[in-house]
Amino acid sequence: MKIPLTLLAGALLAGLAVLAALVSFIWTPHDAAGMNIAARLLPPGGDHLLGTDHFGRDVLSMLMVGARTSIAVAIVAVGMGVALGVPLGLVAAAGRGGFADEIIMRGNDLIFAFPALVIAILITAVFGPSAVNAILAIGIFNTPVFARVTRGAALSLWTLDYIRAAEVAGKGRARISLEHILPNIANILIVQGTIQFSLGILAEAGLSYVGLGAQPPTPSWGRMLAEAQTMISLAPHLALIPGMAIVMTVLGLNLVGDGLRDLLDPRMRRAR
Fold first, then answer.
1. Domains along the chain?
2. What helix, strand, coil percent values describe the chain, rounded to 5?
3. Do residues 226 and 210 touch, judged by C-beta distance below 8 A?
């Protein structure tokens, strides 16, 4: 089976961010939170490969730890969306227009009415800003996405002959959903999960940018951008570096999603 080039290119870009995050657990060039006012606003090069910020913190070290923060938030938030949304979508599809289907879908519509940023504001107004609350906000927003995708994919399977044969054999809707529906829509959910993962990193950066994500001294790509905006004329690298990290990671994950779709979708394989 030929691996799509988009998958390889995306894996390379996203893999760099994952590698930086993993390495940051055991090594960074400098203390990511260590301040050295005497070395503030140094340009890239020398002992500080990507320069320093207005507090004298090493940008490369902050970027590596920020990757860990962004990826961790996105993984947990997407996992939360999968854990809640997929079962709800399966239940709604099994109901096929019944009471459970209507309740779940109208609940999804209600959540869709509030963007992740608004949900984050509501949560932080009660519990305060933190990475955990950013996860809750992004996870809550991901739930109806996975519920809708699961329901739409599952509904098309409930009309097929082998599902009707399973019903005639006496299998209940829950068992059919787990044994026959879920395995056959797993490829769709994997692709959607990859896309939501990229959006989760973007959402975490956005929430941190406005002060609703990870709090100091924990580095975050979004907060690095927020702190750099007043220094952009003096040290443009402070904004360019985390901005490019976000762009390249999100682009890589989207390419991975496109590549997985081409690889896992039989219709795409036939087209090639």
1. 5-23+53-271 (1.10.3720.10)
2. 75, 0, 25
3. yes
Give CA–CA dist 133/126, Å, rounded: 10
46 CB burial (10 A radius; 0-12, 13-18, 19+): exposed
Which residue bears the tokens 């920020």?
A: 66
Chain segment 97-133, per-residue pLDDT in tens: 788 889 999 999 888 888 777 888 888 778 888 889 8
* CB-based burial label for 130 (10 Å; 0-12, 13-18, 19+): middle
* Cβ atoms within 10 Å, residue 98: 11
Cis before 115 (ω within 30):
no
pLDDT per residue as tens digits for the range 129-186: 888 988 998 999 899 999 999 999 999 898 888 888 988 888 888 999 999 999 999 9
The alpha-carbon radius of gyration of the chain (Å, integer) is 22
Positive or negative, the Cα torsion across 207, 211, 213, 217?
positive
Q: What is the pTM (predicted TM-score) of this model? A: 0.90
